[in-house]
Amino acid sequence: MSTALQWFKSTYSGSEGGECLEVAVCPHTIHIRDSKNPEETGPTLRLTPTTWAAFTASLR
User: Which of 19, 36, 42, 58 has its CA 20 to 30 A from that of 7?
Assistant: First the structure.
């Protein structure tokens, strides 16, 4: 049995649209998608939590 991913946008994302990413966090995978293409069949990027942490740390 699979459960649906719980997607969320950054608190830095505005309501006016534009370039936003949505993220869904699972124990062993971080899922990332374009908020303009939120369909279940749309492309997603999947990262390990370690890779996600390194990526977000590099943005600071």
Answer: 58
- What's the 3-state SS for 30-52? EEEEECCCCCCCCCCEEECHHHH
Ordered per-residue pLDDT tens for the chain, 60 residues = 356 889 888 766 666 666 688 899 999 999 998 887 767 677 889 999 999 999 889 987
Place of tokens 């608190």: 11
Which tokens in the block code for residue 29? 């995978």
Please give the model's pTM, rounded to 2 decimal places. Answer: 0.73
Contacting residues for 32 by C-beta, under 8 A, at least 6 apart: 21, 22, 23, 44, 45, 46, 47
